[in-house]
Design a protein that fits this description.
- 2 copies of one chain form a homodimer.
- Chain A folds into 2 domains: about 1-55, Homeodomain-like (Arc Repressor Mutant, subunit A); about 60-205, Tetracycline Repressor, domain 2.
- Helix content of chain A is about 70%, strand content about 0%.
- Chain A has helices at about 1-15, 20-30, 40-55, 65-85, 85-95, 100-115, 120-150, 155-160, 170-175, 180-185, 185-205.
- In chain A, helix 1 (about 1-15) crosses helix 2 (about 20-30), helix 6 (about 100-115) packs across helix 7 (about 120-150) and helix 7 (about 120-150) packs antiparallel against helix 11 (about 185-205).
- The N and C termini of chain A lie far apart (about 55 Å).
- The model of chain A has no long low-confidence stretch (mean pLDDT about 90).
- Chain A binds a DNA duplex through loops.
DNA sequence: ACCTGAACACCGTTCAAGT
DNA sequence: ACCTGAACACCGTTCAAGT
């Protein structure tokens, strides 16, 4: 559909905050009111965009080891969302996450069960990983956007450099290295630690058949 | 300030999406243009609201054990943000997190260092916990808002109940229990697992002096 | 069927003018 | 100093009317 292509173009060029029905109509070469014959309202438009994108997320080959399957599935979703981070904002603001992402949920829950979790523990593990993934994408995407918009010195960085070393000894010592540290992509590393911790804690409550 | 009190009232009553300069002026009993003598613009207003709230977050007494200090600090921030979740949206969208939250960063970094982490590992640990915390609050707050707005059946839940059991065996089996499981507050449990996993992985790379 | 202009009920913000 | 009405440049959406 013509409209969806125009919407994708505008979002990539100007950011999704700048997408309005009127701008979209101008880009698509129609009247704003015409759009309402193709989508119910703006929310519906964004949902369709979300689902189209979700359907495109490639399913990676899954390793045999269940723990690695969990990590592979989470990383696949993370990397796809990170490539178009505004999608995540709709995903959390909106309910209609499509069936497209369900393979990831199933894969993670199945992996956790194969690691010896109960189904409840597996569901909790999935949710914990989802929270971590969403948070990482939102925080880092907004930080990146700000770096692009602002000229140079972020508020947080200047605040860090002026901290009282008596009250904040570790932060003051880290201040000049902080921007470089915060810019690193540590998602995968954190994910691995999280999965390890979640599985270990699950086994404490409910030891698996064979350790 | 009169204006800030009115803003808090409106946000609590109607949600922060509904807060507009014009509505706020009406509530405060002035003209919309008058607001601009007290705040630079709408973003400035939200930032002031954020900082006022952050200053109020109580600092809990910190236990002696460094791992428990990390968990206590993270939970204190989490619980405060969860009580007024829209704050988190501004916190991620906006850069100007005040000095008020810095004690939490310092406490977590210091706790990680006391657990044997290098400063880099401590900074990574803090960031990972922050991502998890932000994600948990945003996802759950939006889910709760939707439960309030929508009449009853969430899209996700109906989608879950119609899953093909052949392709999604675990999810299909969990479908009817999913809403109840997802409504549970598992933040603290996940936090503990995450901290355990992060510290264990850090020690693999860099074993602490005394284990 | 598909499209549209006019219109409605809103926004955030500026600025010259009032007390 | 503090406040304000008029105005500007926008929004999303509806609806009767056009082809």
């Amino acid at each position: 559909m013509q409209i969806m292509a125009a919407a994708r173009l505008l979002i990539d060029r100007d950011g999704w905050q700048k997408l309005t029905m009127r701008r979209l109509a101008a880009e698509a070469g129609t009247a704003p009111t015409t759009l309402y014959h193709h989508v119910r309202d703006k929310e519906d438009l964004l949902t369709q965009l979300l689902n189209d994108y979700a359907d495109q997320i490639p399913r990676p080959p899954l390793p045999a080891d269940p723990r690695e399957r969990i990590i592979t599935a989470a990383r696949a979703i993370h990397d796809s969302l990170a490539a178009w981070p505004w999608i995540t904002e709709i995903l959390t603001a909106d309910d209609r996450a499509g069936e497209a992402a369900m393979w990831m949920v199933e894969t993670i829950v199945a992996g956790a069960v194969d690691c010896g979790c109960t189904t409840e523990q597996a569901a909790d593990l999935y949710r914990a990983i989802w929270y971590y993934t969403v948070g990482e994408i939102l925080v880092r995407a907004n930080a990146a956007r700000r770096r692009g918009e602002l000229d140079r010195p972020s508020h947080r960085d200047t605040l860090l450099s002026k901290l009282d070393p008596a009250r904040f000894p570790h932060l003051a010592a880290l201040a000049d290295r902080w921007p470089a540290l915060a810019a690193r992509d540590t998602y995968a590393q954190g994910l691995r630690a999280f999965v390890d911790g979640l599985l270990a804690n699950a086994h404490d409550d409910h030891p698996p058949r064979r350790a």
